[in-house]
Backbone:
């Protein structure tokens, strides 16, 4: 197999594993609270059923991984690519931090402030990705929309559970 093709296969696999691993770590922090603390919260009428979150996040992490691959395969020797990958890393860290604040520490207000930062980090990542790959940017649209919904949900969970 050609070196370039092997390199791209490695980048694709790594790009998919990285966000899925972050999601797995987030799930480890989330799972213990779902059946206990979270189930006891007052929830707004638009709160989705618990079972929907796993499949949605799995799909979003997959799309994030493919988007990362489309950017990374352009090569880290380009300044725009390095900036885009760095932005991706920041938003992925903030994604994981939200699970820690909300589910592990049971701090809905802090999680709400943090998810707003996450939203802006995703928007910045999309802008950085667009400079390298428009397809990569478009793959993050569902993620931004879901985090927009999650932000509203987080706000209501905070306000309904002082």
Residues:
């Amino acid at each position: 197999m050609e070196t370039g093709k092997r390199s791209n296969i490695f980048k694709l696999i790594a790009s998919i594993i990285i966000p899925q691993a972050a999601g797995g770590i987030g799930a480890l922090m989330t799972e213990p609270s779902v059946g206990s603390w979270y189930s006891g919260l007052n929830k707004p009428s638009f709160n989705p059923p618990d079972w929907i979150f796993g499949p949605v996040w799995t799909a979003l992490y997959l799309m994030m991984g493919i988007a990362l691959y489309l950017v990374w395969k352009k090569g880290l020797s380009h300044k725009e690519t390095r900036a885009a990958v760095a932005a991706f890393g920041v938003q992925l860290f903030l994604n994981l931090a939200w699970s820690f604040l909300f589910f592990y520490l049971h701090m809905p207000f802090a999680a709400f402030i943090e998810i707003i930062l996450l939203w802006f980090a995703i928007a910045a990542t999309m802008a950085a990705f667009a400079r390298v790959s428009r397809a990569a940017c478009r793959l993050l649209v569902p993620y931004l929309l879901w985090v927009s919904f999650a932000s509203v949900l987080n706000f209501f969970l905070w306000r309904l559970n002082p």
About this structure: The radius of gyration is 17 Å. Helices lie at 3-34, 53-72, 79-104, 108-132, 134-139, 141-160. The chain is about 80% helix and 0% strand.
